[in-house]
Amino acid sequence: MKLMVTGGAGFIGSNFIRYWLLKHPNDSIVNFDVLTYAGNLENLIDVMHDSRYTFVKGDVCDRDMVFEIVKDVDVVVHFAAETHVDRSIMDPNVFIKTNVIGTQHILDAVKEYQKRFHHISTDEVFGALKFGDAPFTEHTPYDPRSPYSASKAASDHMVRAYYHTFGIQMTISNCSNNYGPYMFPEKFIPLCISNLMEDKKVPVYGDGLYVRDWIHVDDHSRGVEFIVNNGTIGETYCLGGNCEMANIDVVKLLLQYMHKDESYIEYVKDRPGHDRRYAIDFTKAKNELGWEPQIKFEEGLKKMVQWYLDNQEWVERSRSGTYQEYYEKQYVIR
Ligand code: NAD
Ligand code: DAU
Fold first, then answer.
1. Which of 16, 154, 162, 323 has the greatest count of CB atoms below 10 A from its CB?
2. Which residues pair with 171 in a beta bridge?
3. What's the predicted TM-score (pTM) here?
4. Does the Cβ of 11 fall within 6 Å of ligand 1?
């Protein structure tokens, strides 16, 4: 089988490509990525000489190029997106372009060539839970509250519209907060780790009691694998980590793992419209696909900290924005 993975140079996409190549020796992958600030080919340096892997530098908003690549593959797994909520608050424009218009081009191409399509979405489309509310399920009404989550919600609606109207072979997954190696250090956990590595304080928004449901990126990749292989066409699956944690408790674990005290906590101005709590009920994925998360948060987080400590140069290049330069000096981008 030949897969097109969009956004494969980012955090989850690169982990997914590595995971898939390992688990599926007869498959090949085309990584289609425009390399925004979040796209780092260094994330896949270990597979770049694998004959089953090809990188194509391309924009999901470039319709002709999207059609050209989709034509030649069996399955499209669509990760490419603008993903950082804070950036979407500063400038929503590119979120609409990439996440909505870009997804529409992919949809037109999978419709034209009748390809299997899996859309990667987020639990943020469901809005914010209050303490005591039941976790999100596939039946929770959409209520996105940031420009990022609204753009992801719009793309989900387009995917479903193309299924109902044109019969495309699609599935969707709505996943909770991922963590793991190669996570860009603007997101909360890697930002905290990399600040502590530089002996800086960690910025905690508001009261620090916002809750996220953390899932290891390899559990997410396995969930997507199960859906691509066995999911029912037209269906949505919620994937979560069974691990609700307040941000301040995540910070306390990191301080413990990195041998720092609580003086490194700095409460800062809150994010506008900050969603209080996310949590996922993944019963459907468990019952229909036999999927559930396997990696315990404390174990996965400890390994993640160790990965960052072992890859200090990757962290420095990510923080200084010099990773493409570094990569291009050593390799030619095909
Ligand atoms: P990321 O920001 O680390 O990576 C995004 C990748 O997409 C980058 O490689 C970037 O270069 C690429 N990209 C952006 N615009 C593009 C364009 N116009 N054309 C081609 N490529 C483009 O993101 P991530 O955290 O790995 O998230 C991947 C997907 O998973 C996104 O769709 C996101 O909404 C979803 N998701 C993320 C999380 C999370 O916790 N990070 C949770 C649930 C769902
Ligand atoms: O829930 C899935 C979503 O998780 C994905 O769809 C998004 O792409 C991904 O970025 C993530 O969104 P969040 O906004 O939850 O992630 P972030 O890492 O930005 O923030 C996690 C929590 O930490 C959130 O409550 C805000 C808080 N935070 C974040 C930053 C960057 C802080 O307290 N301080 C910070 O500096």
1. 16
2. 118
3. 0.98
4. yes
- Give the lowest-confidence range in 157-161, 302-306, 315-319: 315-319
Q: Is the pLDDT at 333 greater than 60, yes or no? A: no
Catalytic one of 123, 213, 218, 244 = 123
pLDDT digits (tens, 9 = 90+) for 261-308: 999 999 999 999 999 999 999 999 999 999 999 999 999 999 999 999
Active site residue 210: no
Average pLDDT over all residues of the chain: 97
Q: What is the tally of helices (H) and strands (E) in the chain?
A: 13, 12
**Does residue 37 have an active-site annotation?**
no
CA 83 to chain centre: 8
Ligand 1: distance of its center to the CA of 190 in Å?
Answer: 16
Instruction: Kindly state the percentage of the chain with pLDDT values over 70.
Output: 99
Q: Which of 42, 124, 225, 281 is catalytic?
A: 124
Residue 2 CA to ligand 1 centre (angstroms): 21
Distances (CA, A) of 244 to 280, 287, 294, 316: 9, 21, 15, 30
Return the CATH fold of 2-330: Rossmann fold (3.40.50)
* Cα(253)–Cα(300) distance, integer angstroms: 12
Identify whether 108 is a catalytic site residue: no
